[in-house]
Amino acid sequence: MTDSDPPVIEQAPKSSRRVTLSTLITVTLLSSVASGVLGFFLAQRHGTSGSAGQGVSSGAEKYQCPMHPTIIQDHPGECPICGMKLVKVPNSPSASSDAKAASAGERRVLFYRSPMDPKQTSPTARKDEMGMDYVPVYADEMANDKPSVPGLSAVEIDPNRQQLIGLTTVEAKMAKIGGSWRTVGRVVVDETRVHHANVKISGFVEHIYVDFIGKQVYRGTPLFSMYSPDLLAAQDEFLLALKNRGILGASSASPLAQNDTLVNATRRKLMLWDVSEKTLDHIAQTGETLKTITFYSPANGVITKKDVVHGMKLDAGAMPYEIVDLSSVWVVADVYESELRFVKEGMLASLTLNAFPNREFNGKAAFIDPMLDPMTRTVKVRLSFPNPAKELKPEMFGEVVLKGTPHEALTIPADAVIDSGTTHVVFVAVGSGKFEPRLVDVVKSNGDLVEVTSGLTVGERVVTRANFLIDSESRLKASLSALTDDAKLTQPESARVLPATQASATASALGAPVSAPTVAPRRKATTAPATPAATAHDMNSMTTGHDAHEHHGAESP
User: Fold this and answer.
1) Neighbours of 185 (CB within 10 A)
2) pLDDT tens track for 340-353
């Protein structure tokens, strides 16, 4: 080599450069995978320590993530999910008392359930997603596998809680029932006491004495005066008959009885036209006709209809006034089909009104309608009530009590029965704060008491207040019992399940044998994810191909 020759730069073999690059890529990928596996393993370790922290004694300190309540551990730290600092959890007095009771052998805890969702259960004491303590479920509470009422179960309530919710019980006892039935009634006019003041002849009204509706009138009260040519002619006939009787009476040839017949005929004609006796006597005494004739009220009552004014012409058959006697009224009561068999004509009844809260009006059943109302499915019963002081006014509403003959039967308060529409359920106190549901048959009720034909015996105590709260607790317990009958509880519903790939990676890092995961068939073919080794091999192949391409390009002219 001479000094003029250019320096020769030695190049490393290309095969050695390719090996170095492939090794670098493989190491980088393996480091990333190892970091992910290690992080996942640490997260799982924190979760396991949190779960184990649930099993520690209630006196041990616990730390919980504010955002993820399922992350619990026995030492301070950070949440492996969100990175927030764990907060110290105060000891739960309920959990400690449950643990002490379980250790003492008093009551055996089967599992714990969420107070908000009974389907979420756990074999150990824990908190739900809202931070609320799980409620223990004891073995003695689940002893009744087959409740007497479907969907309900016996419940146990301590005396302090009974006082808190206002629970009261009443003893089932024999009493008289069935003697009265309550319904609503409406005061109406007695149709047998309605009178119409009409005219038999046509004429013209000259004067009106009763000029407004609602005025009280009595029998013989003047209503109106009317001029009628027919009445005037009839008066002339009456006076002529009287004059002829006087003339013929002086003659001994005419018998007195024959003369009286004509007078009586004309007098009767005026009486049939509603001319009063007083008016006829006045005409006979004065011997003069009257231009207007006054008509009087035929009965006592109030004016409910007025169809006459001064100067009005009235035709024969017109009805200027309607008079209703309110000294006795009807009360129309609605009786349902189920109670119709107890109602009889002549049975006593009482009526109370809002207008007179401290008064009770007594009457009796006068008529039972033979037809049933298809709209209300009730039968109208007419009750007759005396009304001398006119206190009962038509269209008033009130409460009617039909009084029958009571009989002796087993009774309980109506508030004790929970009516579901098809069944009647009561809760019976069996002692020691325990209440069990019971199906009963109810046949009669008088509003306050109900008659029970089966399901109870004399002396048993039933719940009358807070029974709906007990019903809710009973249904909740029955649903928990159904869950335990289906399958044994192994883990809480909120337990985490690791994906197959992460589980395999974690097992590999721990040195455990890895089983091939079962892949569910899919509708469309997808490309399987690349493993680290495959990725490294593909990168090596790509690098080798690229270098080979460069080498080929360098050698080609």
Assistant:
1) 26
2) 888 889 999 999 99
10 burial (CB, 10 Å; 0-12 / 13-18 / 19+) is: exposed
The CA-based diameter of the chain, rounded to the nearest angstrom, is 206
* Cα–Cα distance, 371 to 232 (Å, whole number): 52
Q: How many residues does the chain have?
A: 557
Measure Cα distances from 156 to 55, 121, 142, 398 in Å.
27, 20, 11, 44
Picking from 67, 77, 52, 84, the residue whose alpha carbon sits closest to that of residue 130 is: 67
Two tokens, residue 532: 């680290």
State how far the Cα of 288 lies from the Cα of 47, in Å rounded to an integer: 126
SS (HEC) of 217-283: ECCCCEEEEEECHHHHHHHHHHHHHHHHHHHHHHCCCCCHHHHHHHHHHHHHHHHHCCCCHHHHHHH
Element of type H or E holding 19? helix 14-54
Distance CA 551, CA 543 (A): 12
Neighbours of 366 (CB within 10 A): 17
Angle at CA 474, nearest 5°, toward 471 and 475? 90
| CA dist., res. 490 & res. 471, Å (int) | 29
> 197 exposed, middle or buried (CB, 10 Å; 0-12, 13-18, 19+)?
buried
pLDDT digits over 500-545, tens only? Answer: 444 444 444 444 444 444 444 444 434 444 444 444 444 444 444 4
CA distance 488 to 194: 81
**Is 0.70 surpassed by the pTM of this model?**
no
Centre a 10 Å sphere on the Cβ of residue 121 and count the other Cβ atoms it contains. Answer: 22
Of 316, 302, 323, 324, the C-alpha closest to 226 is 316
Q: Which domains does the chain have, with CATH numbers?
A: 14-90 (no CATH), 93-142 (no CATH), 155-177+408-463 (2.40.420.20), 180-191+325-404 (2.40.30.170), 199-319 (2.40.50.100)
Give kind and range of the element (H or E) at residue 335. Answer: strand 328-336
> Each residue of 420-439: b (16+ CB within 10 Å) or e?
eeeebbbbbbeeeeebbbbe
HSE, side-chain direction, 13 A CA sphere, residue 351: 28
- Name the residue with tokens 């730390």: 63
Helix (H) or strand (E) holding 25: helix 14-54
Query: What own/partner pairs with CB < 8 Å and gap ≥ 24 does 440-447 have?
Result: 442/417, 444/177, 444/178, 444/409, 445/414, 446/177, 446/178, 446/179, 446/180, 446/181, 446/182, 447/182, 447/414
Q: Which tokens sit at 296?
A: 């009087």
Residue 23, H or E segment: helix 14-54
